[in-house]
């Protein structure tokens, strides 16, 4: 993505909670024994060159197809996935220096862990099946706030259970996870995160396992709690409609990911009404409820449905092998998202078409691509 001459990006003001600077996460891919002695280890480029700030009260919805790196990026934001390149800072403190005890550590790693919480897609798996809800909720509070009396701890837990609609809370607190519905388990997971008074909550496909009716109710609850507790949220979703619902209602951002990169980011109304990146147009087309007429009337705006291998992503623009507007230059030159993209409120797309003076407009269309000769109004 963006190339930097200086490795440290100037981040925003005091209200930046988490700041990612040119972060990449590459995993070594498991190979068979014969392959492993014959070949260089293969690396999955799950996340590549992402710079992003999460501010206080920020809401970011990350969306993209399966395997594009959403979960890996989300985990990197909350400091549970170590980047292979670039830096992640929590309120100016390098998260991994704090973890390793290197450099000058001004914020202890324990405080960072408390401040950055996660709720998973499958809350059942995240709760201990042999522990009652109360015990599951008390354990982290005891760890982080050992001074708190049992009475205060329980009062806080009951108040939060009540707050998420689990009434009477004493009844729910004494149940085992299997005695709760999926939606109730998800609420317990949310309470567990909120008990820590976090700055950021990563909600990884947190509503996709729920029935449609419950999904909207749960998204509304998340938004209400986000406002009430002044918590920032990073939502991960593979559907654009959920991402739009959350980001729009919260006045937040949508970030579109493709093969490890953020290709477009901005306010949901702008990104979805007038997508600048050809991949965002594909996602909009695939989301029937955003514009049903568009979907019925047209073929998908893509040349190939095959998703490239993240071990060996295409050169230049990673979307060029599928893009219906790709030209020769897209094969060799990677478009940049731009430095502004890190900041909330910015609207950016990593596509040469957004620059009316770019060489793209003089470059030959790739095979199967129809050329429009000049920049379009909406592509400016
Ligand atoms: N621990 C790991 N070791 C090796 N490869 C991994 C690991 N975690 C993720 N990957 C690979 O990294 C890429 C991105 O995975 P990730 O889970 O971040 O994508 P995603 O967009 O969240 O997908 P989904 O929507 O299916 O959950 C995938 O190719 C995945 O196989």
Any overview of this molecule?
With 380 residues, the protein is of the alpha/beta class. It has a single domain, classed as 3-Layer(aba) Sandwich (Rossmann fold), CATH 3.40.50. It contains 15 helices and 11 strands. The chain has helices spanning 33-38, 70-77, 95-100, 109-115, 123-126, 133-144, 150-163, 169-173, 182-194, 212-229, 240-250, 268-273, 278-286, 292-297, 328-332; strands at 16-28, 43-55, 59-63, 85-90, 93-94, 116-119, 200-204, 232-237, 253-258, 261-266, 348-349. Helix 9 packs parallel to helix 10 and helix 10 runs parallel beside helix 11 (240-250). Mean pLDDT is 87; it is low at 1-11. The site of adenosine-5'-triphosphate (ATP) has 13 residues, from strand 2 and helix 2. Residues 18-284 form the ABC transporter domain.
